[in-house]
Every structure is written in C-alpha cells, then in structure tokens.
Design goal:
Elements lengths: L15 E5 L9 E4 L5 E3 L2 E4 L2 E2 L3 E5 L2 E9 L4 E9 L5 E11 L2 E4 L3 E16 L4 E8 L7 E10 L2 E4 L3 E16 L4 E8 L6 E9 L2 E4 L3 E2 L10 E5 L4 E7 L5 E9 L2 E4 L3 E4 L8 E5 L4 E10 L2 E12 L2 E4 L3 E2 L7 E10 L4 E8 L4 E9 L2 E4 L3 E3 L12 E5 L4 E7 L6 E8 L2 E4 L4 E5 L8 E6 L3 E2 L10 E4 L5 E2 L6 E7 L2 E4 L4
Antiparallel strand pairs: 1-40, 2-3, 2-39, 4-38, 5-37, 6-37, 7-8, 8-9, 9-10, 9-11, 11-12, 12-13, 13-14, 13-15, 15-16, 16-17, 17-18, 17-19, 20-21, 21-22, 22-23, 22-24, 25-26, 26-27, 27-28, 27-29, 30-31, 31-32, 32-33, 32-34, 35-36, 36-37, 39-40, 41-45, 42-43, 42-44, 44-45
Length: 495
C-alpha cells in the first residue's frame, strides 16, 4: 500500500466481501445486511391488519379496566375492579405476556379490598413501577383520590400501601407518564359542584408517592376525564377535554419536578357536543392525534384532528372524519400508536352494539384514515370505559382490554396487529456477484465498489434502491450509485 487513498472506500473495482446468505439469493440482486451479519434480499413485505380472537381474562362482574405496558419486564398490566362476592368491587390487577395473538395471564392480585372505581394504570419508566389510581370507596375515605405503586416480578405484581392524593370526593381520573421529569401526571375532577378539573404531579419513591401542588385546568364541568398524553418531541404534556360550550379544548402542560404549569388553552372544535377527548402521540410525525365522538347529521360519529405543540402553545390541522358514515359511536374512542407501522389505531364502540378499529396516518398537519375494521368481541362493552389499547414493544402488537356488562359478562382481551408495508432497503449494503444458496457463503460487491452483474441501466444516470429491491432512477431514501454502463454501477459509499 503506497498512499493513504488506497485506504479509502472510493469506487473503482474490488470491494468484494463474502457473506452468508439468509435465504436463496439470485445473481445481481440488491442485498441488505442483517443484525446477525448475514445478508438477505432487499424486499418489501406486507403485514395485514386485524385482531386475534377475543378471550376471557376474568369471568364475572368486572369494571373500569385500564392497561399499561411495562417495557422493563415486557409485560402488559391490567387494573380493574372485580366483584369477589358480597358486592365489593375490589381493585384488582393482573400481569400478562403477549405472544402472537394470545396473552397468558398471571394470578390476579388485589390492591384495594374495598370498592374501587375510575381506575387508571400507567407505567413509571424512571422507577420501573406501575402506578394505579382510583376512586376509593372504603370507609373513612369515601371517594378519595388514591394511588398505589406496584412492582412487577415475572407474571405477578406486589403493591405498597394506599396513598391518598385528595382527601375529598374525586372523580374522572386519568394519567400519563412524563419522560422529561420522570414523574406521573394525574388529572381529575372535583367530585362535587362545581365539578372543575385539576392536575397534579406525582413522584414515585420505592413503593410510595409524593405529590406536588394542584393546578386548576378548567372553570367548567368537563363531564369526563381529561385526556393526558406525553409529547416526546416537545417534552410536554397535552391535556384534552371539552370546552365550556361543548367543543374541543387542549392545553399544554410543562412539568418541572413535581410542579406543572399550563400554557394558554385553545379550542379546536366549536360543535362536537362530546365529553370524550383522547389523544395519542405519533413519534414519526412528532404530532398528536386527538380523537373524539362527534355529531354528523344528528348521529354521533367520530372525528380526529392533528395537534402540534410549539413551546407552551398548541395549534391544529383540520378536523377529519374517522369513519366515513355516521355509526352511533358511544363513549370513549381510545387511540394507540404503533412505531413499526408508524400509524395510530383508534378503538371505539357503537351504542347499537359492535366495535370498530380505524387506523390513521399523519402527514404534516393532515390525517388520512383507512376503512374501519369490525372487531369481533363478545358481550356488550362498558361504553363509558370503552376499549383500552396499549402497544407492546416486545411483541410488536397492540393489546386491548374491555369489560362487558351483559351477555357473556367479564373482562376480555384481544391482540391487534396494525397493517403496514415494510422494507429492509435502509440496510442495503451491496449487490451479489453470483447466485448464493441459502446458508452458503458468496461474494457481494459492497458500497464503494463497481458491480457488473446488473442490467438495463442508462449510463451516467443516478439510481436508487426501491422498497422492493429493484434499481430505479426514481428517487428514494436509499441512494445506490451512478450507472457506468448498461450492466455496471458505481455503488455510492457516502450513505
């Protein structure tokens, strides 16, 4: 080696490396490098949307189901109230493991032996704990706002003592985890007139919690829990509810330690006539999608709107119908984001029976919605709580839970798969020099080299790797290189 330039991966011959093939590879095909060091053909695959068969979690009288995902243990955690006999709807929790389209469950654990309602379940990633909030009906603490902290171990969960965050009538509880502060934000409504809504921040320490100063969210009755979602890009909380005239309202919350401050609220719809507003954060677009029931031709249907946080303010795109026709949507519409599909799926129920899932894709401040998918679910769903979804990053699936009130009464689950097309083109590394059998070793011309095993190229044209593995002058995110002749290409090494 005579000079430094020979060390550099500039184009011009050579650059042939042997790899083991994962799958049979043809001659002159684009290949992608896998995490195990083998190569596979660049190709596009399709994941079909749909739900697995709904199955029972707990038979009998169950209410108020809420679900969270524990990424440290790769488990889903469901909190609900269960009638163990004697009319006491005890606060109960169960841990599940998602595998394919099924969930296996551990043994249910009681976290409050007295009546428990208005339950939320959220995971604290900073402390690796589950936080459950509820309305406590126990003697001496009637309707108090209360939390417990849970620790997951395998398929079981253990709890510390109850912690009261509001020692008077408290209702309409909701919560979300704030990644920036490592704390939990709780919203609630005063259980007695004038029914205003409030927020506070809770910090977990061991199996206990401490709380910051309460902040008033509204000077009107929201009629339902305030939706709370964390925006990762803005590092802020987005809180959504109905406004004083029945439309949609949102405000940005900034958490510092155990304090939360609010920006200026904004109205995004003047005529939805709904109490139920929920949102999900889309990490791909760095936007939030707010979903809610709304009236279309005097029938309660569903709408969505994209919300963008800038500083302590929020702006909106245009309202878009989640479903194309009025469908008598009742109660909560609850969304969940799938990072693989880069889509949000909203789950909703109909007052006349039946449930729907609608998948949405955000682009800029607009949203496009796929056709609704009819969910096959037994029983009549508790419409106030609706269907609760959570994305399981280990299984790459969305787990949903719901309680039924008639027919086959119980707590049920199903596993949802968001449909999408995927490609490994981003892992493009080169072009095969000859056909390679599955598990055999063969030569690949890698980036920086000249492949002479291609055909049909236009000399001096720039080519890109397409999602399906072909080379084309159509621009894509993966640059292949410049054609030297109809059968050779100088593979770019800069990307």
């Amino acid at each position: 080696m005579s000079n430094l330039s020979e060390l550099l991966p500039a184009g011009g011959g050579g650059k042939n490396v042997d790899f083991v093939a994962s799958g049979t590879l043809g001659n002159g095909v684009t290949v992608a490098l896998k995490t195990d060091g083998t190569v596979e053909a660049v190709a596009e695959s399709t994941v079909t949307e749909g739900a697995g068969t709904a199955a029972i979690v707990s038979a009998g009288s169950n209410r108020n189901a809420s679900i969270a995902y524990d990424p440290d243990n790769s488990k889903v955690v469901v909190a609900y109230s269960y009638d163990w006999g004697g009319g006491s709807a005890a606060g109960t929790c169960v841990v599940g493991t998602v595998s394919g389209n099924t969930i296996s469950w551990g043994t249910p654990v009681v976290f409050n032996s007295d009546n428990s309602s208005q339950i939320f379940c959220v995971y604290d990633q900073n402390n690796n704990k589950v936080v459950i909030g509820f309305q406590d009906y126990s003697s001496g603490a009637f309707l108090y706002g209360t939390t417990v902290v849970g620790t997951v171990s395998g398929t079981s969960i253990s709890f510390g003592s109850k912690i009261v965050f509001r020692s008077s009538s408290t209702s309409e509880l909701a919560s979300s985890y704030d990644e920036a502060s490592g704390n939990v934000v709780i919203s609630y409504m005063d259980g007695g007139s004038p029914y205003y809504s409030y927020a506070l921040v809770g910090a977990v320490s061991g199996s206990s919690m401490s709380f910051g100063t309460v902040v008033q969210l509204t000077t009107w009755n929201t009629g339902a829990p305030v939706g709370v979602v964390y925006d990762q890009n803005a590092a802020k909380m987005l809180l959504t509810c109905k406004n004083s005239s029945g439309g949609g309202y949102a405000v940005v919350g900034t958490v510092s330690g155990t304090s939360i401050s609010l920006g200026t609220g904004a109205t995004f719809s003047a005529s939805t006539d709904s109490n139920y507003f929920e949102a999900a954060y889309d990490a791909n677009s760095q936007k939030n999608l707010i979903v809610y029931p709304s009236f279309i031709s005097s029938v309660r249907s569903a709408h969505s709107i994209v919300a963008t946080i800038t500083g302590t303010s929020v702006t909106f795109g245009s309202e878009t119908a989640l479903i194309s026709s009025a469908a008598q949507i009742s109660g909560w519409i609850r969304p969940a984001y799938d990072p693989l599909a880069k889509k949000i799926t909203s789950f909703m129920t109909k007052s006349a029976g039946g449930s729907l899932a609608v998948t949405s894709t955000i682009s800029g401040t607009s949203v496009s919605n796929a056709s609704s998918y009819a969910l096959t679910v037994p029983g009549t769903i508790q419409t106030f709580r609706g269907i609760w979804p959570v994305y399981d990053a280990n299984a790459n699936k969305t787990a949903i839970v719901y309680s039924t009130t008639t027919n086959t009464v119980g707590l049920y689950y199903a596993v949802w798969t968001t449909g999408y097309a995927s490609t490994n083109s981003a892992d493009f590394i080169g072009i095969t020099d000859a056909a390679i059998s599955d598990t055999a070793s063969g030569s690949v011309t890698i980036k920086g080299g000249i492949s002479t095993n291609v055909s049909g190229l236009t000399p001096n044209a720039t080519y890109y790797v397409q999602d399906n593995g072909t080379l084309s002058t159509t621009t894509s995110s993966v640059l292949a290189g410049k054609a030297l002749s109809a059968t050779s290409i100088n593979l770019d090494y800069t990307t």
